[in-house]
Structures are given as C-alpha cells and as structure tokens.
Write a structure and sequence with these properties.
The protein is α/β, with parallel strands linked by helices. Helix content is about 40%, strand content about 25%. The chain has a domain of about 140 residues: Rossmann fold (3-Layer(aba) Sandwich). It contains ten helices and ten strands. The chain binds adenosine-5'-triphosphate. Adenosine-5'-triphosphate binds next to helix 1. Keywords: ATP-binding, Nucleotide-binding, Transport.
Amino acid sequence: MSAEPIIEVKGLRSQFGTHVVHEDLDMTVRRGEVHGIVGGSGSGKSVLVNTILGLRKPDAGEIYFDGQAMSEMSARDRAVLERRWGVLFQGSALFSSLSVRENIMAPLREHIDMPVSLMAEIADLKLGMSGLGPEAATKMPSELSGGMKKRVGIARALALDPDVLFLDEPTAGLDPVGASKFDEMINELRETLGLTVIMITHDVDSLYAICDRISVIAEKKVIVTAPIEELVEFDHPWVQDYFAGPRGRAARSG
Ligand SMILES: Nc1ncnc2c1ncn2[C@@H]1O[C@H](COP(=O)(O)OP(=O)(O)OP(=O)(O)O)[C@@H](O)[C@H]1O
C-alpha cells in the first residue's frame, strides 16, 4: 500500500428533500489499501459509495479519482474510468436467466469487442480466481449457495481487470467459516492483483482480518479514518459502543 490517494471525497453534501445525509464529508482512499466503511444503519454508507461510483450526483463537494475531479470529466473519460472499477453489490445482483459464465462475460460484452470464445476463456479464468471450479461455469444462479453467488459476483467484478473493487457488505449472510474464507480470498486478490478495495461492512471480523484502514460515518461525516488498533481507542460514543459490544469484544479477543 502507498500513501498516495486514489480516491478523494471532499466537502460532500448528500441530501434527499430536506433530509441531509452527508454534510461536508471528507474521505481519502489510498492506492492498494483495503478501506472499510462502517457506520450505523442509515448513516449513509451506500449513498457515499453510490456517489463515488457516479450513480448519484453530489449536492455539493467533489470526488477526485487519481487527482482528477469527476464532475469535470467528459462522458468518454468517465466511461474509461468506470472500466477501472469492479463492483459487488449487496445480494450479488446476478442475472438470473444467465449462466455463471455468461454473468461473468456480461461486462466484457458491454465494453469490449472480442470473440465470444475468448470472453468465455477470460470468464473461466476469473471464476478460478474467485475460488470456484470450472464445473460452476454452466450452472444457473438459482443452483448456487449464497457464498458461491458472492464469488461469482467477485469474478464478474474482476472481468475487466479493475484497479478498484467496491464491495457492499460482502460477508453478510455467510456463516463465520464462509465469511473468513471470503476475507482470505479478498486479501489474496488484493495482493496478487494490486487492487484497491473499498468495502462497506458490518462484520467486525472482516475489519480485523483485512482492512488496512477504516472510515467511520457518524453525524453526517467521516469522523475518523484509522487502522483498527487505533480505531478501537477512538473516543466517540458510536465507535465505543460498536467495539465494546459483544461482537466487537469477540473479534478483539479472537
Ligand atoms: N433514493 C433515496 N431517496 C430518499 N432517501 C434515501 C434514498 N437513498 C437513501 N436515502 C436515505 O439516505 C440515508 C442513508 O442511506 P444509506 O442506504 O446510504 O444508509 P446505510 O448507511 O448504507 O444503511 P444500512 O447500513 O442500513 O445499509 C437513509 O436515511 C436513507 O433513507
């Protein structure tokens, strides 16, 4: 990991009618880190990530990618940028009528003009990277367990060789063993591919296992960004409740 920023959020304001979700929110993600985002339910984690992804326009403030203001990018530059991102949405969001292989091929079909046989080869390679065997390629999403669906979601997110991977609660719904295996896979991918990973999570074990730094959203802002060892000492009621609760204590002593 380097200290060099890859994504910077500056002075972000997000608002729905009179409901202000973010006010003057700043956050910096460093190249090559696994950056966790935590916060209470409704604190604005998903809205923040959707804004970085360009699915929502900031009501004020700016998002910078590699130092370039996203609001000033041309549509073409944005399209190029989006190819550098892989996203695993909550629930994996696979196309139910497409096989696993076709799901992973979908971003290739959308963005790259190449023979179908080559797309299929790339899809199978990504499937292997996500820890699934070739026999999974012809299965339909309905035939997969929750953990397998998430792995296919990761394979699809990796289809275009992204620099940055966005994960929305990747271990939600997995049993503890499945969740820790998933964490291991993310760690391996980060190391072998040099990815930057931005991950919304409620999973305290994941924070300990793979996050280099964690941003906490409370009171409409990022109130702190720190490695877990520093974060647990941070003097704020939400942070203290979170890490002093039963799940936080168990993870700390684990
Ligand atoms: N499209 C929308 N229209 C109106 N309000 C919205 C919309 N999207 C989000 N919000 C509101 O913004 C706030 C933040 O939502 P967000 O989904 O980002 O929270 P979160 O921190 O991701 O929560 P959770 O942990 O429960 O997933 C919530 O109060 C939500 O109701």
